[in-house]
Automatic annotation (TrEMBL), chain A:
Family (UniProt): Belongs to the protease inhibitor I47 (latexin) family.
Domain Cystatin LXN-type residues, every copy: 61-164, 180-285
Keyword Ribosomal protein in record: no
Alphabetic keyword roster: Protease inhibitor, Repeat, Signal
Pfam families to which the protein is assigned, alphabetical: LXN
Example of a GO MF term: metalloendopeptidase inhibitor activity
Name recorded for this polypeptide: Latexin
GO CC annotation: extracellular space
Annotated coiled-coil segments of the chain: none
Signal sequence range: 1-18
ATP-binding keyword on record: no
Length: 290, 429
């Protein structure tokens, strides 16, 4: 292994060491004792359209959490999705600003409960407030959605966007004029100003999916609203068909979903139907037949 | 032999022309319309295509007509007839691929770029740093840039990509031989567009400030900077033509229809361990072996043969993070305390510009355990000051960050980069 290998080992043990090398020898890299041996190409038995990550579930942190580290961050993101499902609208969208503190504990064998102090940002009015929240991730054979409770967030939720919401609602209620196949935003991050409220609506509706799908091993954002189409108004609710691309930061996958949802200022967003689209793989060119 | 998608310049030129023609055909909208390339396999299939062409009801626009089984057939299919046409082709076992998946988007883009080029002089002073550019535009800018700053900058060809595109490193040097150097790579995950865009702006910043900024000038008088602006050129092209969300390389995976390997799970650091997938269709597929990806191998070769890099910085988006090793394990790196303090100071400088807040920590603690990452490899190879940036934002726009945030992002990031580089300069080892 040589002197270099020994230095690496010593480094492993956490002692400080100064590195006097002027050359970097490849051996130093490949003889790392903690590197995994190169795996041979596996003949995978992978079933199902979506790959299972080889995520090792380290023993999750319990007790007081580091607010910058991912366990608290992932739980806080779930609170964001929850707030958007409950209070989001074309003119009201919540973002997570910061996690101030967090705590996690196992609940018998039924799951894991997080207590969080976070600051939340209403993006359109640019208002911030501190909130407390509890997120419970149930554990079980069947994957259940997390449960969220929020407290001391009242000021944020009282934000008034009524006049804009009402104006939009009236405009689109009788004249079914919205029909767009433009992606929101487009590849360059651009959105036409008239389309922005519908981008927000797409995000709010997506929040129902993101909330339902969240676990301690996911971190969802909306990557893009691929398409949003207005359908005929029903029961005084504007109705929409929507195709969205989500992004899970942990797996880096882009799950695609179709949704049917309604909205009105009084009713908020209600999701009628969701459907995950099959994973679209970029295929290699069709194999040559000769 | 039929043309491949990747005879880029010639075919792109042809399509550009055809796109212009399409635009000339009044204010028609091509939203959702696709250009499909059909690989006719037999005379019988050729006849079927010819019949298709004659059927007016389909409203098909043949860009390359069905004339021979040796030549591809390109068809512009209106979105209303897409499903029916594809079904028809599939029913007759006629192979096809989608070349352009939304013609309107391409036209809009090209129109915008044409306008941009029209206004542009042959000078980097008028190059729009506040816009996202295609690969060819970045590469041609590089040549202008190097010509304008030839006393400081050279362009190194460090090898080809899987699809045979050159990989260019800009070397900033005032002389010497293999001076202690700083490595910066951007765009290894092609969909993270603000990364490549930040690289272009930063390269220009370094060249412009050299000679006027005392600290940068002193740095460049003793150290070199190597910057790889587009570490994944194949992927970058895909994000412009076909799939904005493409992340990986474009290598073929034996036995699977899925393309590509996650280039940031392919380095020889805990390779194949947790946080990387062994499934080729996964976005975090680590590849068949460490450094299997030519793009990664090219970087590794350069770093190893140089032998005197003192800092290694990888730039990604999004999440607003500045991280240090390790990703492949949550065990602390030997220099964790020092790296943490450098990162914290760098982030403070960053946020001083616009108040943008970043978090600092090891990869494993901050986002996830992830094996085979570049900065783990560089750190374990002895390059102590190894860092990874995740630029703006925190998820509102995500990968599709509006172009008007490019310059603010690059400007604030520059303050952090400068801090790290100055620290490296002042702490030789």
């Amino acid at each position: 292994m040589g002197l270099r290998g020994v230095i690496v080992l010593v480094g492993l043990m956490g002692t400080t060491w100064s590195f006097n090398a002027t050359t970097i020898r490849p051996e130093a890299v490949s003889t790392d004792t903690f590197a995994r041996p190169e795996t041979t190409e596996e003949t995978t038995e992978q079933k199902g359209a979506v790959a299972e990550e080889e995520a090792v579930e380290d023993v999750m942190a319990t007790g007081e959490l580091n607010p910058s580290h991912y366990p608290a961050q992932r739980a806080a993101k779930v609170v964001q999705h929850y707030l958007n499902t409950r209070y989001g609208s074309p003119y009201k969208l919540f973002g997570l600003k910061q996690v101030q503190s967090g705590n996690a504990e196992d609940v018998a064998d039924s799951g894991r409960k997080y207590q969080l102090d976070i600051s939340v940002h209403e993006i359109i009015s640019d208002t911030k407030e501190n909130c407390s929240a509890e997120v419970f991730f149930p554990r079980g054979v069947k994957q259940l959605s997390p449960q969220v409770q929020v407290s001391s967030c009242e000021e944020l939720l009282k934000i008034d966007a009524n006049s804009e919401e009402e104006a939009l609602y009236q405009q689109y209620k009788t004249n079914k004029t919205l029909r767009t196949e433009k992606r929101l935003p487009d590849s360059y991050g651009h959105i036409d100003p008239e389309m922005t409220p519908f981008w927000h609506l797409g995000i709010v509706a997506s929040s129902f999916i993101m909330l339902n799908e969240s676990t301690e091993n996911t971190l969802y954002n909306v990557a893009q609203v691929a398409n949003i189409t207005q359908l005929t108004t029903e029961n005084d609710q504007l109705k929409f068909d929507c195709h969205v691309l989500l992004h899970d930061m942990v797996s880096q996958e882009i799950p695609q979903w179709k949704m049917l949802f309604t909205w009105s200022p009084a009713g908020g967003v209600k999701v009628l139907h969701t459907e995950q689209l099959p994973h679209v793989h970029d295929c290699e060119k069709h194999p040559k037949t000769n | 032999m039929p043309h491949t998608l990747n005879s880029p310049d010639k075919m792109k030129g042809l399509w550009f022309l055809l796109a212009l023609v399409a635009v000339a055909k009044a204010e028609k909208s091509f939203t959702g319309d696709q250009v499909v390339r059909v690989d006719v396999q037999s005379e019988e299939q050729l006849k079927l295509l010819q019949v298709l062409e004659s059927e007016e009801k389909w409203n098909l626009d043949f860009w390359l007509h069905p004339v021979s089984t040796e030549l591809p057939v390109d068809v512009l299919v209106p979105h209303t007839h897409l499903a029916a046409v594809k079904e028809y082709l599939q029913a007759h076992n006629i192979p096809f691929t989608v070349m352009i998946d939304n013609l309107q988007e391409l036209l809009d883009q090209e129109k915008a770029e044409m306008k941009e080029n029209h206004l542009r002089e042959h000078s980097t002073r008028s190059f729009n740093f506040g816009a996202y550019h295609r690969l060819e535009t970045i590469y041609s800018w590089m040549d202008t840039f190097v010509a304008q700053h030839s006393n400081l900058v050279t362009k190194l060809d460090i090898g080809r990509s899987y699809e045979n595109r050159p990989m260019y490193v800009l070397k900033f040097s005032t002389g010497g031989t293999k001076r202690p150097a700083i490595w910066i790579d951007l765009g290894i995950h092609s969909r993270e567009w603000v990364s490549q865009a930040t690289g272009v702006w930063t390269a220009n910043k370094i060249a412009t400030d050299y000679g006027t900024d005392a600290s940068l000038t002193s740095l460049l008088n003793t150290m070199d900077i190597y910057m790889l602006i587009v570490a994944n050129p194949d992927g970058y092209v895909v994000t412009h033509t076909n799939n904005r969300m493409w992340r990986k390389t474009r290598s073929k995976n034996s036995g699977y229809a899925c393309l590509g390997v996650d280039p940031n799970r392919n380095w020889n650091a805990g390779f194949g361990g947790p946080g990387a997938s062994s499934y080729p269709c996964s976005e975090s597929y680590h590849g068949p072996s460490a450094h299997s990806e030519i793009e990664v191998k090219n970087m590794v070769n350069l770093i190893q043969s140089h032998g005197n890099f003192k800092s290694f910085i990888s730039v990604h988006s999004y999440s607003q993070l500045l991280m240090y090793p390790y990703g492949y394990t949550c065990r602390g790196a030997p220099h964790q305390a020092e790296l943490d303090s450098v990162a914290k100071a760098a982030v403070q400088k960053l946020s001083s510009l616009y108040g943008t807040s970043y978090k600092v920590g090891s990869i494993c603690n901050i986002i996830y355990q992830a094996s085979g990452g570049s900065i783990d490899w560089s750190y374990d190879a002895g390059i102590k000051y190894s860092f990874a940036f995740e630029l703006r934002d925190t998820g509102r726009y995500g990968f599709i960050l509006p172009a008007d945030q490019i310059i603010p992002t690059a400007s604030e990031t520059w303050l952090a980069l400068k801090h790290i580089m100055e620290y490296v300069r002042d702490h030789p080892y």
